[in-house]
């Protein structure tokens, strides 16, 4: 007979879980494994709310496992380390991002891109090597293999750094891989939201010229005056689009809904690159001719590996980059998810786990 979540492992844990496709989160008692020889156990202090959490708890991607404790932007302080752990000690500030396991032997793993391993194990809504369910960061404690734990630089506040563990890496990785990190390049960020605002910050720190493209003119002042973008225009403004044809070296497209790609492709110079990092719930239409005319590239990217994740955090530390957040209590999480669905947040929700998650009797 299968054991209950509370009895699977020896260490008691508490969090909030979804039980079915409504995605409603409620208090949940479960358990974590004991600290293995290569494991790091830490007290969770903050966890970011990612848009993928919303998709997952509602089974919108068709792979949901219940009960489901979401959260893959998790930071806290180490409370115990295994006997063979070398990178961390008790008291260190650490984080766990989007994955907690991989095969360790394939080409992707050997190249430090565990995120592209065919057997990679997401932080939640997945089954671990031992056959038990993985529960995410909307909880009071986490245990992870040290390979999948990163150190948080001391100068970065834990609450505002949490979203970088997913959103930050999702932006940093493609900018590096596609060569859109070279000073002097001109790129556009499409969609000034949770991913987009971090893209602007990273791009400016890399020495790029940055244009923001959005559908909301109210974001212009925010983009230009506060985030430092060099230009801003509306995607539905045909005159503005025409005036900028063939002016961009690259585009980071962070829009999570269906939208036309052809107008964006026309903005690229020859050999320009359009990189998709948003995940629309339906397929996008990709016209061939704009690609052929100018030898342009459309690519995608799914976060980064662990080496790149730590590199991104060190870059953020050097340039003092964090996410713009709204800190919320655990019992506000369902309201926060409803607001997130309406894009009613500037720009990422973070749950104050340490001060507001209280176990039930």
TrEMBL record:
Q: Which InterPro entries match?
A: ADH-like_C, ADH-like_N, ADH_Zn_CS, CAD-like, ER, GroES-like_sf, NAD(P)-bd_dom_sf
Looking up SMART domains in the UniProt record yields: PKS_ER
Molecular-function annotations in GO: cinnamyl-alcohol dehydrogenase activity; zinc ion binding
Pathway the protein acts in: Aromatic compound metabolism; phenylpropanoid biosynthesis
Gene Ontology terms: biological process: lignin biosynthetic process
Domain Enoyl reductase (ER), which positions? 23-351
Enzymatic class: oxidoreductase
Q: Mind telling me which residue stretches traverse the membrane in this protein? A: none
- Catalytic reaction list: (E)-cinnamyl alcohol + NADP(+) = (E)-cinnamaldehyde + NADPH + H(+)
- Keywords recorded for this protein, A-Z: Lignin biosynthesis, Metal-binding, NADP, Oxidoreductase, Zinc
How it assembles, according to the record, is: Homodimer.
Record-stated family: Belongs to the zinc-containing alcohol dehydrogenase family.
Provide the protein name.
cinnamyl-alcohol dehydrogenase
Q: Which organism is it from?
A: Punica granatum
């Amino acid at each position: 007979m299968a054991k209950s979540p509370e009895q699977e492992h020896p260490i008691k844990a508490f969090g909030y879980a979804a039980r079915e496709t409504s995605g409603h989160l409620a208090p949940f008692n479960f358990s974590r494994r004991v600290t293995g020889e290569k494991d790091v156990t830490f007290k969770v202090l903050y966890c970011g709310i990612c848009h993928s959490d919303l998709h997952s708890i509602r089974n919108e991607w068709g792979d949901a496992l219940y009960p489901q404790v979401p959260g893959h932007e998790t930071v806290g302080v180490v409370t115990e380390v295994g006997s063979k752990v070398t990178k961390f000690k008790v008291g260190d500030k650490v984080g766990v991002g989007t994955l907690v396991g991989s095969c360790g032997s394939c080409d992707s793993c050997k190249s430090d891109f565990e995120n592209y391993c065919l057997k990679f194990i997401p932080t939640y809504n997945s089954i671990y090597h031992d056959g038990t369910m993985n529960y995410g960061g909307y909880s009071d404690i986490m245990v992870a293999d040290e390979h999948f734990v990163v150190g948080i630089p001391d100068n970065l506040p834990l609450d505002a750094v949490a979203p970088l563990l997913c959103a930050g890496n999702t932006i940093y990785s493609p900018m590096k891989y596609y060569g859109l990190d070279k000073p002097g390049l001109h790129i556009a960020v499409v969609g000034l939201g949770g991913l987009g605002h971090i893209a602007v910050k990273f791009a400016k720190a890399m020495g790029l010229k940055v244009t923001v493209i959005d559908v909301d003119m109210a974001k212009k002042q925010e983009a230009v005056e506060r985030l430092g973008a060099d230009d801003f225009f509306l995607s539905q403004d045909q005159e503005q689009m025409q005036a900028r044809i063939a002016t961009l070296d690259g585009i980071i497209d962070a829009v999570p809904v269906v939208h036309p790609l052809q107008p964006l492709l026309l903005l690229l110079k020859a050999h320009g690159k359009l990189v998709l990092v948003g995940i629309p719930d339906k397929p996008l239409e990709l016209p061939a001719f704009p690609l052929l005319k100018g030898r342009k590239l459309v690519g995608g990217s799914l976060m980064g590996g662990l080496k790149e994740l730590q590199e991104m955090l060190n870059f953020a530390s050097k340039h003092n980059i964090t996410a713009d957040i709204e800190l919320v209590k655990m019992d506000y999480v369902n309201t926060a998810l409803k607001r997130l669905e309406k894009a009613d947040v500037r720009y990422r929700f973070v749950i104050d786990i340490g001060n507001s998650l209280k176990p039930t009797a």
